[in-house]
Amino acid sequence: MTAHILTRRRVLAGLGLVAAPALILGTNHILSDRARRKALLRSGEWLSYRSHSLIGEDRLAREFAPGDISASFRINGSSKPETEDWLRHAATGFADWRLSVTGRVLRPGSFSLAELKAMPARTQITRHDCVEGWSAIGQWTGVPLRLLLDRVGLADDARFIVFRCADEIMGWRYYESLDLAHAFHPQTILAYGMNGAALPTGHGAPLRLRVERQLGYKHAKFVMAVEAVSEFASIGEGRGGFWEDAGEYEWYAGI
Ligand SMILES: Nc1nc2c(c(=O)[nH]1)N[C@H]1C(S)=C(S)[C@@H](COP(=O)(O)O)O[C@H]1N2
Ligand SMILES: [Mo]
């Protein structure tokens, strides 16, 4: 499946189609934020993005009871990064690992796992919905992303938060991005715990995103760095995420 998708991606790139949105957004600085976002999204995607923000930006995803937790939770996509830096950190139990938070922020910094765990935590039992058609309920514990963003302070022109992952799929590093409404949502957490234990490797150790009102592929696993940007046109191939660049899934994956 992956091979098929990346072949398609290469074909798109060859035709210059993948780079087109980057050109539009990179050169036209007079477009308003709203117009920029609209230009980037496909029309159906733009409609659901707009209607979901009208329904309420702080609407919570349903939370479940401990008895609802799935007996088995599928591991999907990468199950273990093979990049040198992640392997080195994994070998020492992530003792020297740090999450860097940079980009359009006032106080760029980095956080050890111990520092993240010392911050106020949130635990939530939610249902994960993968676009491939399976779901599972799990309990996640982590630091609300908004607490981290408050610590570093966003610059006035920050519009999106990008998550850079340790794993590569056929030579491309996985990454994802969110708008600020989803980044600051109370259920958006960087999780280091799952079902009461440390986050297992397959589910994204040492840290993975949970963004409960969006589909599974937005939940970046193996997060190494968080970057605030004013636009994502210059990142990757300009569509805001690995699968988005592949031409496979839309950037806005609201459910
Ligand atoms: N870094 C990274 N994050 C990722 C993926 C991946 O391959 N690499 N797969 C995504 C997809 S499609 C899904 S459904 C979920 C799966 O999370 P799980 O393995 O904990 O079930 O992770 C998402 N985040
Ligand atoms: Mo998925």
Q: Ions, cofactors, ligands: which are bound?
A: ligand MTE, molybdenum atom
Any idea of the CATH class? Alpha Beta
- Distance between the amino and carboxyl termini: 24 Å
Mean pLDDT: 88
Number of strands: 10
The CATH architecture category equals Alpha-Beta Complex
How would you spell out the order of helices and strands? HHHHHEEHEEHEEHEEEEH
Uncertain spans: 14-30
| Tally of discrete structural domains | 1
> How would you name the CATH homologous superfamily?
Oxidoreductase, molybdopterin-binding domain
| Helicity level | 25-40%
- CATH topology name, in short, is Sulfite Oxidase, Chain A, domain 2
Strand content: 25-35%
How many helices? 9
Tell me about the largest β-sheet. 5 strands, mixed
Which term fits the overall shape?
Answer: globular
Structural class by SSE content:
alpha+beta
Please list the strands of the largest sheet in the order they lie side by side. 2-1-10-5-6
Oligomer: single chain
| Spatial extent as radius of gyration | 18 Å
Task: Characterise the protein shown here.
The chain has 255 residues and is of the alpha+beta class. The chain has a single domain, classed as Alpha-Beta Complex (Sulfite Oxidase, Chain A, domain 2). It is 29% helix and 27% strand. The chain is built from nine helices and ten strands. The strands form two sheets. It has a five-stranded mixed sheet. Strands 3, 4, 7, 8 and 9 form a five-stranded antiparallel sheet that branches. The longest helix is centred in the N-terminal third of the chain and has 14 residues, at 2-15. The two termini are 24 Å apart. The model is unreliable at 14-30 (pLDDT under 50). Residues 76, 130-132, 216-217 line the site of molybdenum atom.
